[in-house]
Amino acid sequence: MSKRKYDYDLFVIGAGSGGVRAGRLAAQLGKCVGVAEESLPGGTCVVRGCVPKKFLVYGADFGEAIEKAKGYGWSTENVSFDWTVLRDSVQKEVNRLSGIYSTILEKNGAELHRERAELVDAHTVRLCTSGETKTAETILIAVGGSPWTPDIKGIEHAIVSDDVFLLPEQPKRMLVIGGGYIACEFAGVFAGLGTDVIQAYRGGRLLNGFDAEVRDEVGQVQIRNGIDTRFNISPTEIRKTDGGYIVSFNDGSKIGTDCVLMATGRRPKTDTLGLDAAGVDVESSGAITVDEFSRTSQPNIYAVGDVTNRVNLTPVAIREGAAFIETVFKDNPTAFDHDDIASAVFTRPPVGTCGVSEGEARRRYGDDVTVYTTQFRPMKNVLSGSEHRCFMKVITKGKQETVIGVHLVGDDSAEMIQMVGIAIKAKLTKADFDATCAVHPTIAEEIVTLKPRELNKTTVVT
Ligand code: NDP
């Protein structure tokens, strides 16, 4: 029997969404696979991101549903909310799911090392707790990212998204800094759970990079949820006081609060990973440089997921991990297509978006763009008295009117955009949308009955 040159065919650093998918698929192909994870298997998504966040969103939604049920004849006196019940239930589920991730790897024959791993050279990793070294023919880096905070005085008093899920008690007042995904989502969650929330953003419109009208709608969503949104201010100092914290801003204003959540972005976790020693190049952002096959500057080392800072979403990391397996272990070079990825922001109600924004469409195609929008109060909100509305926008290009962007804000937008994403990926046209018979009475039916924005007198053009 020939002796194996390396300990493993594949060593995966990081058991998050991308790493687990790749490790499992390689093991199923009969490869000898090692995986290292310094935290709980499952990664950001399962342990301190998408999954626990979505449970908190559901938690907040129940509060609103109870309140709004009065219009449907329900009595809702003596309602109360206990943060510790929700927090502990979520953690129980997180632990269960994390266990499933370990089992998936181990059942398929991968060896899971529950410790940090760092690169020693292009074929060697050191396991940092045991001190052991392991060699591998191919290495996959899938270590993800972590919250980044600006270096301001008193920053140690702030929490980041990782900490939110373990808060010992629900803050009466919360200051959320940032205008991105995480800031908008947690501001919505805590406002929904009864916390007085102020969201402070350095720009003038939330959700930088999204369609301009979506950004305006989300601004309205936050206000309707009782969030005090403050624009064009950046924090300069956080001071601890007897009664909480005082945060100073660059315009001279100060905000008192019980909890400061810094949601100011995430960065790839590439520090001290030994990338230099292994000959793996990183960009100035810290992201690992990869080609379309997720191969790094070191030919036997690949990287997938947030550590590459391409499109930082769980399903993308999973697809990149699967494409890596096709390329390296199935002799089928596969580049995951990063265009037209549908995604959602779980504000309350949420945003669903796929394809290009109107601004981007006009930059690319000039006047060869047609925009369809509508805004309406969904049926459910009429009896409940909820002020929330639905906004829909479809963007097409050319004479053929191929649909190149759909943007939704309102109930069920996250669910709808998954379906619409198929149509965009299939390059369907507005005529295809129009030929599709409506499902009545639904919110979604409006997507197949949209009129050009110019004809829709109720819509404000931005
Ligand atoms: P984002 O990049 O979306 O938002 C960061 C926010 O912080 C921006 O509003 C940014 O302002 C602001 N900011 C940055 N630096 C400073 C500073 N020095 N002072 C004040 N404000 C600052 O990052 P998130 O952390 O919200 O999310 C990270 C990524 O995680 C997302 O891009 C997304 O890919 C993923 N994610 C996806 C989710 C989903 O799919 N639902 C949910 C959560 C995260 P500016 O806009 O001016 O740059």
UniProtKB/TrEMBL annotation:
The keyword Metal-binding does not apply. Residues 341-449 form the Pyridine nucleotide-disulphide oxidoreductase dimerisation domain. It catalyses: 2 glutathione + NADP(+) = glutathione disulfide + NADPH + H(+). PROSITE patterns: PYRIDINE_REDOX_1. Its EC number is 1.8.1.7. Keywords: Disulfide bond, FAD, Flavoprotein, NADP, Oxidoreductase, Redox-active center. Signal peptide: none annotated. Gene3D superfamilies: 3.30.390.30, FAD/NAD(P)-binding domain. Its cofactor is FAD. Residues 8-321 form the FAD/NAD(P)-binding domain. Homodimer. Belongs to the class-I pyridine nucleotide-disulfide oxidoreductase family. Catalyzes the reduction of glutathione disulfide (GSSG) to reduced glutathione (GSH). This is Glutathione reductase. It comes from Algimonas ampicilliniresistens.
